[in-house]
Structure formats: C-alpha cells, structure tokens
C-alpha cells in the first residue's frame, strides 16, 4: 500500500464534511437522459459523459460518495470505460468517495489483476462477490482500496441462495457476514471502521439487525433506499451499535445508495410541475439534499 | 435471441470437429511473454496482442475453445480491452468457441447491461457468479450467449463458503448446482446439452461425481487441470452419465481448461532442452495437442 489515505478514513472524512451518509449511484442509461443533454451532444457516449459531469457537480459537497455502475459504461464499449475513468477522477477531485460497482471476484492471481485495474481506474473502493472466498478481496486491500463484499442483496432472486439455512443455524448470508467480519478485522482504520465493508440491501431490514450484530465494524453499502422500497426505519436498524443514539455520519457505518431517484429526479412529475424551466441538475441537487436531510433523522 | 447458432450447438460442433475437449485459457501477463515478442514490440499492449495472436493460431483446429481472462486485459486499460475484443473476433473466425471469463453477476437490469457488453465484445459465452440468484444469467441467455455459473471452484479459499453444509444435507455448492440445473432445464439445445453450464474445479474430484448427478445436461467448464493438480481420473468422474463409456467429445459435457501449461509451454525446461531454436508457438501447439490426446483416453 502506498501513502495515500485509506478508504475507511477517506469515507469518514467525506461523510463528516458533508454531514451526509448518501451515495449517489451513477447508472446512466441513454434513454433516460434529459432531452437537452441528448440533443446537444447527438451521440451516446458524449451524452453519458455530459450527464455524469452534471450529476457529479450537482451532488459534490452534498453527499459522501458516488458509485459507478460498471455495466452501464462497459456496454458503451471501451470509450464508455474511458468516460467512466475520467468521471471517477472528476468525482474524486471534488471530494467524493468513489466506488466502482463491478461485483468482481476471482482467485488470488486473477484478483490481483482486477485490483490493479481498479486502482488505475481511479476508484477508492470496489464491490466484490465472495463466493470464491472472501480472500478475493486481499489484493484490493493491499493496494489501499476499500471493498464491499456482497452479503445480502435486495433482489428477490437472491433469496434462494442467501436465505438458505445452514446446519449450524446460520443463513448463507450470515455465514458470508461472518467471513466478511473475519477478513475485515485485519483492516481496521484509526476511526474504528474497516476497509472491508458489506453490501446489505435496505429491503431486508428484518435480517439487517442480525447482520449488523455480526459485522460491527463494517460500513454497510445499502442499495434499495427509496425507489426500491427501503425506508428510514430500515436504515436505523443497520447503524453501528456504538452510535445507536446517532451523533455522527462518519462513524454510523451506513452508506445509503440511491440511483434513479436522484440522477433522474428531473423526471419526477412533482418536480416538473413546480419547476418548469429550471435546469435538470437542480432537480438532482434537490433530490440529493432531500435524501441527506431525511437520513439526518436517523444519523444526526 | 437472433438467428445465430446457440452456444451449446456451437461448442458441440467445435468439439466434434477438433475431437478435443480442451479450452485454452488466455491469461497473458507481460512478464511471462516470450522474449522475442516483448523485444520486438517494445510495449506492453502490443506484446499481449501479438502473444494472443500467436496462441490462437497455434491452437486453432486443435482445441474446442479459448477462454479470455478479462482481468488480464482490464489491467492494461481500455486499449487492453480493445485488444481482447479483436482477439475474440479472431478466435471466433478460426472456429474456436470463445468464452469471456469475467465472473460477472448482478441484478436483472444491470445484468442486461453486462449481457449487452458481452455480446458486443464478441464472446459466445461468459462465466457468472450466481450469489445474487442464478437468474442473473437470463439476460445473457436471451441474447443467445452461453453461461457458466460458478458452482465449485478449485481454490482452497472457496471451501469455507462452498463446502458449508445446509440443514437439508446439501453443501452450498450442491445447492448452486441444483439452481444451475433448474435454470438450465429451460435452455436445452437439440444436442441435449444446456446453454447453462457450470464451473467445477478439477481438484475437487471427490465432490465432482455428486455434482454431475445433479447437473446431467450441463457442460462443466473445468479449471485446474495439469498445473493446478487435476488429473484424467478427476475428469472421468465428471463425464455425463449417458456417455460414461465415452464415445464423443461433443456430448461429453466436459470442457477442460488449461492456461499456463499451454500458453507458456515454451518455458518448460524439457521443451527448451530438446527444441532449442524452434518458435515459441510450436511449444504451444505441442502442449495443446498433448493435452487433447491425454484427454482422448477419457473422452474417445
């Protein structure tokens, strides 16, 4: 690892300085982009670049992190990946923690190559699948990157695998939580948080408290808030026990992701009705600030 | 799905025409490339391109498939991916089945983007992680791509997850096998094989027969042969029951991968001792043919 700030520290700083536990998901799909962006640029990759540029500037200083959905850029070909790398550098330069949502996961030697690629891309952290063993994360950690291991996802198809019961009484997701905590214990930052985080869906709140009990030092990257049905109460049960009375964003251990409800906020009929003529990025800022404020009721 | 040949059919043809169940893994790492390739080109990406070009031509017509390790190309940046795409097209044009080893796996909407990216890349099939549910494969199948779901991997770190016992007596890997077979039943080709295959490591032969009993119509993509300790006997227990007496490569249901032992065959001291001055690609051809012949004792 070089002398760069570690991920858990970086995220802590971003959360404290913005007072936000929000992570904005960048999942751009060209059909959904604002008309003005599409028309002005006249070509897909340029439109996606312009759109991400607008979203990043609209949320900088107001949320802690952005999460780039690799698939949305990969499908645009290598030029799409170049846009993603440029926007990652841009996001980092305006103080956002940058997460690459690529759900990689392979044996040590191959993981080393993925880690090198992620480091070069400019990401501060990546999402990973631990099915081949949570040790797939080690090459990333050794390069100073944070990781978020898939523990419990919010899609219903995940239930058949993740809720399966082991003979020792744990579910598969609980076993993955224990594995994540085991690996993460070796990567605790001075703030008490681990560089090894976990993906835990907001729509599985009944299970989330149990997972928190197993992963006390992990940052939970929580998809599914808002558009996918997750609520403030779902987030509350995922807070770290130490801060249950909720002072500080930076040590809360939750990083709550929203994509569509923020990046496509200009499509919201209410917004459009009341704000005709305002720039689309204002809707994005408004939605990001509103989500941060909602979550301040949970994390003060 | 368009009118292109389906993956299971394509693989069957490639196996029958070459009489080989071998898949050559392209995991190029610049430090390992032949001196002449490195020197002549003087730069990393060009050397990797030249190397893959040489390997593909050396094994065309002699093995059924090639598997591109996405990580090795991703770490070279977007130009590395362009090289991979060009070499995939090259491999397909010389009759090889082309597998993209990327171990993706995400919820339906995102999986759709990954599937579009894989289709554009020129791959015929991809490796996937089913931790979020085996349904992550559906968008790929709908585009006519084959998939290989991770069931049992050959790395020791995978044991803690994959060998965990469920309360119903199955291991996690056996559960994933049942899920794979369930999904695959909807995607059977006219040859009786499914477009949904499974990754099953060759070093877990004791478990492999049990997995075969659960996945009768799946092609097993088998890493770990040779360099990683897998043997002919390990492969024998993975044959489909229908062909246990072993007539035909195309219906055997096994696709045995080797990377280092073939692509870096010129490093073998025995080869070097006996073949000083011969071109490095001759060593690659020799190793691919030798592996095919060894496996003919298992699959006639």
Overview of this protein structure:
Two copies of one chain form a homodimer. The first copy, chain A, has helices at residues 7-18, 35-41, 44-59, 70-74, 78-93, 108-121, 138-142, 159-162, 172-184, 205-214, 232-236, 260-263, 269-274, 280-296, and strands spanning 22-26, 65-69, 97-104, 125-128, 146-152, 196-200, 220-222, 254-258. By secondary structure, chain A is an alpha/beta fold. The first copy, chain A, has one domain: TIM Barrel. In chain A, strands 1-2-3-4-5-6-7-8 form an eight-stranded parallel barrel, surrounded by six helices. In chain A, helix 2 crosses helix 3 (44-59) and helix 3 (44-59) packs parallel to helix 5. Chain A is globular and about 60 Å long. The mean pLDDT of chain A is 90.
Topology:
The structure is a homodimer of 300-residue chains.
Chain A: H1 7-18, E1 22-26, H2 35-41, H3 44-59, E2 65-69, H4 70-74, H5 78-93, E3 97-104, H6 108-121, E4 125-128, H7 138-142, E5 146-152, H8 159-162, H9 172-184, E6 196-200, H10 205-214, E7 220-222, H11 232-236, E8 254-258, H12 260-263, H13 269-274, H14 280-296
Parallel strand pairs in A: 1-2, 1-8, 2-3, 3-4, 4-5, 5-6, 6-7, 7-8
Helix pairs in contact in A: 2-3, 3-5, 3-14
